[in-house]
Amino acid sequence: MNTPIRTTMLLKQQNKELVVSAFREIGQGTRNEIAQLTGLSISTCGNIIRELVESGELSQGDMAPSQGGRPSKIYIYNANTSLALAISLVANGEFNQIELATVNLQGTVLVRESYIKSLHQLSFEFLDSLIAEQFEKTPRIKVIGIGIPGMVVHGEVLYCDIEELEHLNLRDLLQTKYHVKVFIDNEMHFKTFGYFQAHSNFGLKNYALLNVPEHYIYGAGFMVNGHLIRGNANFSGEINFLPYVSSRKELIEQCDSDSTFVELISKVIITIITITDPLYIILCGFRFTDELVLQIQENVNKVLPPQLLPHFHLQQDISDEYLTGIISVITNLLTDKEPYSQP
């Protein structure tokens, strides 16, 4: 009985997204111009534009020059009507690196700040104080997105390189306090998605991203046919559970020694290739060096036939892609899209 209603609501939302995307692309335009860009009727565009003006997402400008008929009003996209806050957390040796970026509806970074905090000083209270400060400066924040170096399920941090955040449901805590959408995910999903966004001109659709920081456990992310694989419980990429070591402590110890590191990572990469068959393997983190990557490639070449071998690419620092991934996700959420949907 409710199917026609749901279908109508879905169609209306899709039409709205088309109109908003058109305005984001051109910045301003008339009903006729938006109708031509979207393929929707002028009346449909007019109804949606009226709603967007009422919500403040559009403002009315001057009249467009007449083309012989009745002049049309120009509507201007207000990208700063609603804002979002991106936060990336990185455990780095004795210190934590925290980056914050406030972005608008177009994903444009308006404010970007960085903090360094000793490993045991980053508490929820400190993180909350940074967020509260941003809300005081920019009360139009409607979405918060946070990347965590650990495992996150339904907003709860099950384990984390920053121990003070373990077993906290950051999503619920922050949503309760700030009454905005909050999206928490592990850093590997954001880094993998951000790499896709930052390097879209290369047409990358099938790759695995393997991250090995110094003195911490490794993680991975997988892009298959242009879609990020997160899994049923957001567990995809938690490769530290592969049965090559008995504990997280042993994993870190093996990664600290070059010989055991090369052997261990070679096994991990062979496993990844046999499961996801990526075209590229992106190696990230400062534990990797050019020499070690060559040794790993040699080990993989001994096991797999040459036609199955992916292209290896080393990029030690992926912090920009990390933040790009969070920004892409929260921009989607600002505009009522799925978090990891593509433009």
TrEMBL record:
This is Sugar kinase of the NBD/HSP70 family, may contain an N-terminal HTH domain. Keywords: Carbohydrate metabolism, Kinase, Transferase, Xylose metabolism. Transcriptional repressor of xylose-utilizing enzymes. It holds the Pfam family ROK. Belongs to the ROK (NagC/XylR) family. InterPro entries: ATPase_NBD, ROK, WH-like_DNA-bd_sf, WH_DNA-bd_sf. One of its GO terms (biological process) is D-xylose metabolic process. It comes from the Bacteria. It comes from Lactonifactor longoviformis DSM 17459. GO terms for molecular function: kinase activity. The keyword Kinase applies. CDD domains: ASKHA_ATPase_ROK (cd23763).
